[in-house]
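Before surveying the methods themselves, we first show a specimen of the format, giving the amino acid sequence and backbone structure tokens:

:::
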Amino acid sequence: MKKVEAIIRPFKLDDVKVALVNAGIIGMTVSEVRGFGRQKGQVERYRGSEFTVEFLQKLKVEVVVDNDKVNSVIEAIREAAKTGEIGDGKIFISPIDSVVRIRTGDLDENAL
């Protein structure tokens, strides 16, 4: 099993959700996060004054999937979240040793 974490633009969440559902994913976790990368923040104006917002708002979408679904999930997220501009985000893949469903005690693939 793998955990796929994607940092995306907030307005792309609905597109990513639809793409993941179409790829057969039935659950995900979404968190509001802030950060910067190559985009390095942005300049805003407020009442005539300029200031730099260094940490931009993003969303982190997390899903845990069987190894055979990882590539389709990555491609679904990549296509749905892409705008072609700097700041589209990143996808991280990590191994998962085990999963336990709290309600039933189901383990691993049965718990997904």
